[in-house]
Design a protein that fits this description.
Elements lengths: L2 H14 L3 H24 L3 H21 L2 H28 L2 H24 L3
């Protein structure tokens, strides 16, 4: 991919994102997708793909942690930071232990976060 093509893809994707709220939703959806693919990779014993998808999910959690506003978000941001770090720990353990059960925990937590996020954003972020 040329630099121009990469830039065009980047700008097209940024235009398609309606808001910061939508971006967070997309990040949660990405975690769910990558964890599902990692779980499938464990089932078919594909170590390389398992590691790849787990690392992608971890990268999203790191991005979510980096985006937390500790001053404005207060206790909620602190709670989310701990929750995200716990999910990273589970993903790392899953990668080491080849454990689909640890990925299932992350999937359950992330689905709950996504559902809560959608509810909050539909009712307003005040």
């Amino acid at each position: 991919m040329t630099a121009a093509a990469a830039y065009n893809t980047y700008t097209r994707n940024n235009v398609e994102i309606e808001s910061a709220e939508k971006l967070i939703e997309m990040l949660y959806e990405g975690i769910i997708r990558f964890c599902s693919l990692a779980k499938r990779s464990i089932e078919i014993d594909d170590i390389e793909k398992r590691t790849y998808w787990i690392n992608r999910a971890i990268a999203i959690f790191v991005e979510l942690i980096d985006s937390l506003d500790m001053e404005k978000g207060g206790e909620v941001s602190l709670y989310l930071e701990g929750l995200y770090n716990q999910q990273i720990k589970f993903l790392n353990e899953s990668n080491i232990e080849n454990s689909p059960e640890k990925i299932e925990i992350v999937l359950k937590v992330t689905r709950t976060l996504l559902e809560a996020w959608r509810e909050v954003t539909e009712n307003g972020l005040d």
